[in-house]
Sequence to fold (64 residues):
Amino acid sequence: MGKQYFSLNNVPLGTKLIVKKTSEEVELVEIQNFPTTFIAKSKDGIKSNYYTHEVEIVDWPNKN
Fold:
């Protein structure tokens, strides 16, 4: 069976992300397109924009 691909535009809001540069855990609150960027909120409530290559997505997609 071939490899299955997932669109980064389908990551569920509320998903935990790890910022690669700082190892900070943030929460996805919005996805913007062209280019795909994630708006994420830190534990302090500060929102920041990240390109998809700047973060690791925690537990997505499910490995069922």
